[in-house]
């Protein structure tokens, strides 16, 4: 079968055996942990940098501009240059800030997004942790990130930061409900919360087609709530430049500001990855029951390509949102969540349970 | 004595829990105390992960760290200012508090050490989500449907009550 070529479990097993051969099990485990950590950190930084580049390019095209085009071909190294600049910048020291909390806050934000990324399956075997509560784990870990934002706003000792943090916090806490409920809807269909089993369940057909009406509703709600949860436009009023300067990270400079910036983009990446895994089959190629030859042809495209392709499409849609729609007011934002998305979601969970019980899913 | 990796992790987690618990009660700035409490709760979740009970660990993170601490921080943000600091505690109070906590530690330790715990040779089992879900909603023996429903009614009542309070304040202002 074409699948076996692209199976990473053999590679990871071989590395594990090799390490266990040359050192004691304890040090082998430690080395493996270090390797996984370093790989994830490098991946995290690279994805973050290129998401920023993609955002600037797409924003440019949508506004009939060229976007960054000076550093390297098509401005390809622009964000790397930006990163070097941010690394060298002075960290501004604020006299009346709460220093401990001010310094801890960016780390809380970035560590939580890092923890959440580690549970995402990128291909068969390319999976750092495969908990049997995968979806719930990601929801639990990403719910801590808001604490970093609240602490950053408060400890800056600045009115704009505080108001920005309060808005941000209210928004994230309320939209988290919708994200969680739409994921629960898909868990009802999948019958599991473990990512590897979820993807296995999409071998014959992706969940968005399997669950038809309620799955599509859940996906729409998820993508709206996910955009709002990452504080991106059109829901970016915590960072509304015209009224609040930069919101909760007004007082941050240099690399600490870069942490917030990077975490924001990685949260968007996480939302896109989750959408890919839960709705669009993860790394599973497109299979249609009955079309055997078609399925075999699809199997020859590597799963990593499938995963990245789907994720890029979802990220593009989220960026498209940002540069198309005008920003919402705070009352419109809360009305959208509490009066529309949440009731729709609750009814949708019932509908999905009904369809699964009746066996009406495809 | 040979120390395994699991023991090292256990020592790190318990050190984090002890240090930050002490900092939580001794800090004179309220938001710092809340943040230290957050670290205590996260380290406790780490202990649950070590026990391979991922569901409880995720619940600990989602409810305590992501829920209750956020609630506490929100209320601090709304009510207190960054320059506020508690008065330093008088030495009499701190001595009595220290004595009380040492007595508590002694009582706990003697009970734990006197009880004859048997080492379980069974390997750690990963508890399936389905078992947890079924027993949460089952009304047979070992089922938890009654406490589950009682708690949900309590929460609903609390929510309605808070809405009533919020509404009243609004009409009075007008």
Entry summary:
The complex is a heterodimer of chains A (362) and B (174). With 362 residues, chain A is mainly alpha-helical.
Number of strands of chain B: 0
Could you describe the largest sheet of chain A, including whether it forms a barrel? none
| Strand residue percentage of chain A | under 5%
Helix content of chain A: 55-70%
Q: How much helix is in the residues of chain B?
A: over 70%
Structural class of chain B: mainly alpha
- Number of domains as seen in the coordinates of chain A: 1
CATH superfamily of the largest domain in chain B: NADH-ubiquinone/plastoquinone oxidoreductase chain 6, subunit NuoJ
Based on secondary structure, the structural category of chain A is: mainly alpha
What radius of gyration of chain A results from the CA coordinates? Answer: 22 Å
Largest sheet of chain B: none
Please identify, by name, the CATH architecture of the largest domain in chain B: Up-down Bundle
**What is the CATH level 1 assignment of the largest domain in chain B?**
Mainly Alpha
User: First CA to last CA of chain A: what distance?
Assistant: 25 Å
The overall pLDDT average of chain B reads 85
Strand content of chain B: under 5%
β-strand number of chain A: 0
Uncertain stretches of 5 or more adjacent residues of chain A: none
Gyration radius of chain B, to the nearest Å?
A: 22 Å
Number of spatially distinct domains of chain B: 2
Shape of chain B: globular
Topology:
The complex is a heterodimer of chains A (362) and B (174).
Chain A: H1 9-22, H2 25-62, H3 78-88, H4 99-117, H5 134-142, H6 145-155, H7 159-190, H8 195-200, H9 207-210, H10 212-229, H11 241-244, H12 254-279, H13 292-299, H14 303-324, H15 330-358
Chain B: H1 5-26, H2 30-50, H3 54-79, H4 91-114, H5 129-136, H6 145-173
Helix pairs in contact in B: 1-2, 2-3
